[in-house]
Amino acid sequence: MPSRVLATLVTVGILACGCASTAGAEGHPGGSGSGRTAPGGSPATPGATPSEAVAAAAAIAGFRTEVDAAAAGFVGDVDRLQSAVDQGSLLAARSDELAAQADFDRFRLLQTGDATTASTLDELATDVGAGQTFGGLHAVERDLWTPGLTPAAATADAATDLSGLVAQAPVAEYLLAREVLDPEAIGTTAVSELGWVDGTAIPGREEQYSHLDGVDIAATVSAAHDAFGDIEPLGHQVAPTLTASVASSFDRLETEVARWGPPATVVDGDISPATRLGLSQQVDATAAVLARLAALLVPFGTAGPPS
Predict the structure, then answer these.
(1) Integer angstrom CA distances of residue 246 from 64, 212, 291
(2) How far apart are CA 286 and CA 248, in angstroms?
(3) Domain containing 99 — which CATH number?
(4) CA-CA distances (angstroms) from residue 35 to 41, 81, 222, 248, 295?
């Protein structure tokens, strides 16, 4: 393990993110899920058919692969961001910052159980008191998009704010490698991701300096869609009609996201109220049917308490 990772782990401690699932559902008989799987990543599914058990295990593995890829991508994005800043390349640094933001969006909700890591990675100016400093991606975003700064001044400011982010990114990757969610928790996480899009990204509350919240919208909706894709084969066995409805709803949602325009170039102020409303309504509709499906997957979890 690189020395910078060890040093940061000593500082923040090894804190595992908690992602508990919601309980209570009608559907397939069996035990209730806790949000995590049994040791080894194989779900305890009393009463499940062999094909259901296989589909549940595949969902767990698929989601695990996606989180690993996003975390690794985030570390790479941050390293490239540091290189661009060191070279004084403002355009490259902006592009790398947006890429890092998009990869972070794919696992942001798995970081909520570790406030130290989450704040170091993605703290907003509104998260701290008056006169206090904030760090992470949005501090770098402020540096790179502050009007009137020369490229040299902007990248110099960003270099200062990048130090904590560079150290914390591999720590986040390490901690995320410990996260194993059962099918119901995967679905519930996707529902929460859509809720975050509706409550934060669509109103333009996330990217307060670049005003490119379309990046967060596209990345987070994509992450939720991928999470649904992981549980979809199991869903077709448990509730085929409902699962087909969720799939159709995601297709409509992706169409609404496309109406926003190129995420990295269309600023929030150029988006019409009608586009925002249509996207928000489809996000809500998709989250509603996905939540119903996730509730039916409660039996496909571990019989024991979360680790």
Answers:
(1) 21, 28, 10
(2) 9
(3) 1.20.1420.20
(4) 12, 34, 22, 26, 12
Region for 164 from its dihedrals, namely left if φ exceeds 0, alpha if ψ lies in -120 to 50, beta otherwise: alpha
Determine, yes or no, domain membership for 26.
Answer: no
Tokens read off for 86: 């060191």
Query: Residue 233: exposed, middle, or buried by beta-carbon count in 10 A (0-12, 13-18, 19+)?
Result: middle
Return the higher-pLDDT residue of 84 and 30.
Answer: 84
Q: Which two tokens stand for residue 129?
A: 């008191």
- Whether 6 shows a pLDDT value over 90: the answer reads no
Q: Which amino acid is at 19?
A: C
CA 151 – CA 148 distance, rounded (Å): 9
Residue with tokens 């993605």: 122
Q: Which residue has the tokens 């586009």?
A: 275
State residue 242's pLDDT score: 98
Nearest-CA neighbor of 299 among 250, 245, 235?
235
Overall number of domains in the chain? 1
The reported pLDDT for the residue numbered 163 is 86
Question: Could you give phi then psi for residue 26, rounded to 5 degrees?
Answer: -100, 145
- Reduced DSSP (H G I as helix, E B as strand, rest coil) percent helix, strand, coil of the chain, to 5: 65, 0, 30
Q: Look up the pTM and report it.
A: 0.82
Mean pLDDT of 16-25: 35
Q: Is 305 within a domain? A: no
Distance of CA 250 to the CA centre of its chain: 17
End-to-end CA distance of the chain: 24
Give the structural domain span for 121. 3-13+35-41+49-296
